[in-house]
Amino acid sequence: MLTRAIVRPTALNFSEGLTTGKLGAPDYEIAMRQHEAYCAALEQCGLMLSRLEADSKYPDSTFVEDVAVLFEALPHGRATAPDAEHCAVLARPGAASRLGEIANMRTVLADVFPSLHEINAPGTLDGGDVCEAGSHFFIGISERTNEAGARQLAEVLSEFGYTSSFVDIRKANGLLHLKSGIAYLGDTHLVVTEALAGRAQFADYDLVRVDRGEEYAANCVRINEHVLVAAGYPKFEAKLRQLGYRTIALEMSEFQKMDGGLSCLSLRF
Ligand code: CIR
């Protein structure tokens, strides 16, 4: 059961962030409204929000998920602190322009998480490359996350009872992060784009395939009784509903222009 989320509203100079897309510049006012609707949806799912201040020093800082990995210690895990039920690992973004985002996030997380770990150089790791799937984590090796960073995270996770494996997406066309192409819904359901569906690592899951042309929808998020999905992908949303999920569709156009998806806009725990 998730109860809380950390979000950071979009900065005025959001359009100066990184993007590989060719969808045009995002509109700040529309992005703000979309972010507000996203926050309202999190609240509808029962989460209490910590809203950080917008930070124009870092135009990509609204994508808070990339800066940390949050998880719960498994009962059989060897917690290093007796009260370490919720654990946090401060990431180390692979894009130079985003590295500075961790200083403020360190302060924010230290207040909430008694057990705060960090990825250290030469490791790099973006939270968008980290997909929790029950007691296992998939960690993407990407343009942003290197093997040193992935190994450091895997070590921390194993202390808390989780197994992990690496998924190399460097040759998977058009995927910025692992979670641009997969999402775990619980109940053995793994959402996956066609480009990643054939990976042997995913063979034990019940795959929910995202049709070609709807790839952006793969970045969806299960929050308690609901699944947040990007609006405009009717075939995918219908598949989720057929599986019994209650969906909330959210307009994401301005974040998509900056290569961001639904999951990156919050840290949930
Ligand atoms: C970036 O390139 O870092 C941002 N413009 C987008 C980050 C999106 N994050 C994510 O998918 N986890």
What class would the helix/strand composition place it in? alpha/beta
The molecules bound to the chains, other than polymers, are: citrulline
Order of helices and strands: EHEEEHEEEHEEEHEEEHEHE
Uncertain segments are none
Mean pLDDT comes to 95
Stated plainly, the CATH topology of the domain at 55-172 is called L-arginine/glycine Amidinotransferase, Chain A
Q: How much helix is in the residues?
A: 10-25%
Quantity of strands, as a count: 15
> What's the arrangement of strands in the largest beta sheet?
2-1-15
In what range is the share of β-strand residues? 25-35%
Rg over C-alpha atoms, rounded to the nearest angstrom: 17 Å
Please state the second-level CATH architecture of the domain at 55-172: 5-stranded Propeller
Q: How would you characterize the largest beta sheet?
A: 3 strands, mixed
Overall morphology:
globular
Quickly count the helices. Answer: 6
First-last Cα distance: 8 Å
Tell me what you see in this structure.
With 269 residues, the protein is α/β, with parallel strands linked by helices. The chain has a domain at 55-172: 5-stranded Propeller (L-arginine/glycine Amidinotransferase, Chain A), CATH 3.75.10. Helix content is 22%, strand content 25%. Bound molecules: citrulline (CIR). The site of citrulline has 19 residues, from loops.
